[in-house]
Amino acid sequence: MVTRLPTRYLTPDDLVELFDLPSVETVYQWRRKRIGPRGFRVGRHLRYDPDDVRAWVKSRMEGSVA
């Protein structure tokens, strides 16, 4: 579980590290399928607001409660 995120905007590589994903391609697949945290472009670079990532994690946790 992500407990503390940096206050700066996150990169796809940051998400790979935070969530122990197999590769950055996973992050790009989430974006294409619109199932991951909301991201935005700064020029050609993809960034994620830590608040959006937190909200996404919370929604995933609430959706998995059985």
Which keywords apply here?
66 residues, alpha+beta, two-stranded antiparallel sheet, 3 helices
Q: Please write the string of helix (H) and strand (E) elements.
A: HHEEH
Structural category is: alpha+beta
The profile of the biggest β sheet is:
2 strands, antiparallel
Contiguous low-pLDDT stretches (5 residues minimum) are none
Rg measurement, Å: 12 Å
Mean pLDDT over the residues = 91
Helix content: 40-55%
Proportion in β-strands? 5-15%
Number of helices: 3
Strand order of the largest sheet: 1-2
Report on this model:
By secondary structure, this protein is an alpha+beta fold. The chain has a domain of 41 residues. The chain contains three helices and two strands. Strands 1-2 form a two-stranded antiparallel sheet. Helix 1 crosses helix 2. It is globular. The chain starts with 11 loop residues before the first helix and ends with a helix.
